[in-house]
Amino acid sequence: MPYHGPLFGAKQTPLSRIRLNQRLALLDPVEADCLRHARRLLEWAQQEPDRTDAQAVVRAKQVIDGITNPFIRDLVTWRLEMRTLVAALRRRHRGESAPRDRRWGFGRWVSRIMQHWNEPSFGLERAFPWLPEAERLLARGATVDLERLLLGAVWNHLESRSDGHYLDFEAVVIYVLRWDMIARWTTYDGEEAARRFDELVEQAMAGVEKSLRPPADALRPERT
User: Fold this and answer.
1) Nearest Cα residue to 114 out of 73, 83, 85
2) For a Cys staple, 117 with which of 21, 98, 99, 223, CB 3.0–4.6 Å?
3) Cβ burial 64-76 (10 Å sphere, 16+ → b, else e)
4) Residue-by-residue pLDDT tens, the chain, 224 positions
5) Is 124 helix (H, G, I), strand (E, B) or coil?
6) No. of helices (H) and no. of strands (E), the chain
7) In angstroms, what CA-CA distances link 54 with 119, 129, 145, 157, 216?
8) CB neighbours of 91 closer than 8 A, spacing ≥ 6?
9) CA–CA gap between residue 39 and residue 34 (Å, rounded)
């Protein structure tokens, strides 16, 4: 497969989705099923927005139980635990109190987060060095910067887990998960650019309309 290159320097995926699927069709059926389960949990496009947190956690556990490869299961578990941390940051940012039901999140850190709800980064900054910066960006409302930070953390984690895996199935999974991230970022970046373009056009049109209107004083009746 072609080299993916850096995440944030990418303008498009290293190969098309059609070509990627053609390559993945060569996988052993058991491996293909394992990869399908992993992507099913991690791709945002495959999530069901109407599910409650508890339903999502139950479903995640069911899917992970069906992943027989321990390396892939660990990768998926790490990502879901990261999402739990981010969800906790967002909840607290909205002013919510600590959840009382463990089913709101996934993984080993759920109880720790609940117990240390009011501590900065839930006291987990050593385990997750990106947490303090994520907290600051969330407080500032810096959505794009927060997205870059989180994707960068995932990208670096996949890089660290790729050591020793070159031509095996695990290397293919890491490649595909990175491909999904590039596809997400380039799409997201395009959407952000389009939104910004629309804002600039709206501002420009507002300026034109303003220049065509008579001065505000001319619209007011003279004071007596």
Assistant:
1) 85
2) 98
3) beebebebbbebb
4) 788 888 888 888 888 999 999 999 999 999 999 898 888 888 755 556 667 777 888 888 888 888 888 999 999 999 999 999 999 999 999 999 999 888 888 999 999 999 999 999 999 999 999 999 999 999 999 988 998 999 999 999 999 988 877 788 999 999 999 999 898 888 865 455 445 544 555 555 544 444 444 444 433 433 33
5) coil
6) 9, 0
7) 24, 27, 29, 27, 57
8) 99
9) 9
Q: What's the Cα-to-Cα distance from 127 to each of 75, 109, 172, rounded to whole Å? A: 16, 11, 27
99 sits in which H/E element: none
| Residues contacting 93, CB < 8 A, separation 6+ | 138, 139
Contacts of 151 by beta carbon, 8 Å cutoff, 6+ apart? 7, 181, 184, 185
Q: Quick one: tokens of 8?
A: 């944030």
Distance CA 129, CA 52 (A): 29
The amino acid at 24: L
Mark 89-107 as b/e (b = at least 16 C-beta within 10 Å).
bebbeeeeeebeeeebbbb
CB 89 within 8 A of CB 134: yes
Q: What is the DSSP letter of 196?
A: H
Distances (CA, A) of 90 to 14, 76, 94, 126, 157: 33, 21, 6, 20, 22
